[in-house]
Amino acid sequence: MEPEPRLTLAATTLDAPDPHELAQFYQGLLGWPVRKEEPGWVEIAAPDGGAGLSFQREPLFARPRWPSTGSEQQMMMHLDIEVNDLPSAVEHALALGATVADLQPQADVCVLCDPAGHPFCLFVRANGNDVQNTASRPPPLSPKARYSGGS
Fold it and tell me: Per residue of the chain (151 residues), what is the pLDDT tens digit?
């Protein structure tokens, strides 16, 4: 019997019209150094290892729409980023060029969009619960109430 192949997730790759600009945003957000850079391609990764983020030039890039509509490019995936302080993490992301998404479906998560329009979520893990456990979450807040820390 053949041994099963070893498979390791090396990176998640985001398309962008300018991969170097988007990589710079995530470098600032996460504090990760560049692992590899070439024309049309940048990889960043945590200094302690693990899967990284890659950015590739896509000349036909269409900015994703979140929440989805039937007539625009849909979000195909998003990043969940755990933070220790949600309001200061949101401020940090905004200072780097992120925008707060129009829809905030959960009170304990802030949905933002990176400069290319990819949605990502900032969250604080509470009581060891996974970010996906939504059964006991409070109702959504408007972006303005969400950004200002509640209403």
Answer: 899 999 989 999 999 999 999 999 999 999 999 999 999 999 999 999 899 999 999 999 988 887 777 776 666 788 999 999 999 999 999 999 999 999 898 888 999 999 999 999 999 987 654 444 433 333 344 444 444 444 3
Given a contact cutoff of 8 angstroms between Cβ atoms, the answer to whether 102 and 69 are in contact is no
Tokens of 33: 């150094």
7-24 CB burial, b ≥16 within 10 A, e <16: eeeebeebbbbebeebbb
Integer angstrom CA distances of residue 91 from 55, 72, 85, 100, 146: 24, 28, 10, 10, 12
